[in-house]
Amino acid sequence: MRTYTIALAGNPNTGKSTLFNALTGLKQHTGNWSGKTVSLASGYYEYKNSRFRFIDLPGTYSLFSNSADEEVARDYIVFEKPDVTLLVLDSTALERSLNLALQVLEMTDRVIVCLNLMDEAKKKGIKVDAGKLAQKLGVPVIPISARNNEGLDTLSEQLLLMCTGSIRTTPYRMKYNERLEEEIAKLETELKLIVGDEYPARWLAIRLLDGDRKLIDTLKQKLAASDRGGMIYGAAKALGSTNR
Amino acid sequence: MDETNILQHLHQASLGERFLIERVDIQGELKRRLLDLGFVPGAVIEVLKASPLGDPISYRVAGTVIALRQEESQLIWGKVMPS
């Protein structure tokens, strides 16, 4: 049986862990405050002769590595490359959730968005047009209520379809101003020579322009640790790594 | 005319008032953090209440309550909205 890896990402208190528990049947307890999910919990779930391995990433508002939590979540998505990053959004606070969503869409195109807490939203009189959101974001958007086990079948089906490559996404990518885009394009081309298709070159370019030192260090380590011979050797050297 | 003359900072807004953010005058990690929390130009912030000693003050931003110290709220510029 094939096993696919699904990373759960989202803001704190969006019900990520509830969804995780509902799908894997685990009783992983997480509390009502940010940063509770520190080490990565993982659990399995079988669906139609496939196995999903779910990784419950720490809940964060952002992935710019302001904290250990954000770094863990970000590094997992970019460097571990799960088959799908399942983005859990709070339907009652979409404005807040979408900040993280846009960041994730910049990092990978294997994203499924689920709108959790739909029951809460309904109670508050909030209507969310999932179809329109899917169109704008360029990835599948599935309304669910993890607490009431609603929408989980549809979600499982979409996960399987994406894992088996039957869904193509066109994730929304932020356009920056002209000068920035010029610099991004320049760096992206150079980065492509180093990382190939291994890591998201455009996203890396943006992070480098932002002066993200920690990311440069992580990238160096990853490239040095990879044992793909000459190309990586050259790459590590190009990035000034002494640890080859 | 220099626009900063007519802008107020968030700390000048009174309890119960709504404040439209126009500029966040902070650099580096703190700015990043504030933006992530929803203190972005164009956002409307509601001043909720002050802690017993007057600082920090809590604000409603993007549907959640976040408290800021004076050092931070003084660097967020905009206008109090007419009620």
TrEMBL record, chain A:
<dbReference type="InterPro" id="IPR030389">
    <property type="entry name" value="G_FEOB_dom"/>
</dbReference>
<keyword id="KW-0547">Nucleotide-binding</keyword>
<dbReference type="InterPro" id="IPR041069">
    <property type="entry name" value="FeoB_Cyto"/>
</dbReference>
<dbReference type="InterPro" id="IPR005225">
    <property type="entry name" value="Small_GTP-bd"/>
</dbReference>
<keyword id="KW-0342">GTP-binding</keyword>
<dbReference type="InterPro" id="IPR006073">
    <property type="entry name" value="GTP-bd"/>
</dbReference>
<dbReference type="InterPro" id="IPR050860">
    <property type="entry name" value="FeoB_GTPase"/>
</dbReference>
<dbReference type="Pfam" id="PF17910">
    <property type="entry name" value="FeoB_Cyto"/>
</dbReference>
<feature type="domain" description="FeoB-type G">
    <location>
        <begin position="3"/>
        <end position="165"/>
    </location>
</feature>
<dbReference type="Pfam" id="PF02421">
    <property type="entry name" value="FeoB_N"/>
</dbReference>
<protein>
    <submittedName>
        <fullName>Small GTP-binding protein</fullName>
    </submittedName>
</protein>
<dbReference type="InterPro" id="IPR027417">
    <property type="entry name" value="P-loop_NTPase"/>
</dbReference>
From TrEMBL, chain B:
<dbReference type="InterPro" id="IPR052713">
    <property type="entry name" value="FeoA"/>
</dbReference>
<dbReference type="InterPro" id="IPR007167">
    <property type="entry name" value="Fe-transptr_FeoA-like"/>
</dbReference>
<feature type="domain" description="Ferrous iron transporter FeoA-like">
    <location>
        <begin position="8"/>
        <end position="80"/>
    </location>
</feature>
<dbReference type="InterPro" id="IPR008988">
    <property type="entry name" value="Transcriptional_repressor_C"/>
</dbReference>
<keyword id="KW-0408">Iron</keyword>
<dbReference type="InterPro" id="IPR038157">
    <property type="entry name" value="FeoA_core_dom"/>
</dbReference>
<protein>
    <submittedName>
        <fullName>Ferrous iron transport protein A</fullName>
    </submittedName>
</protein>
<dbReference type="Pfam" id="PF04023">
    <property type="entry name" value="FeoA"/>
</dbReference>
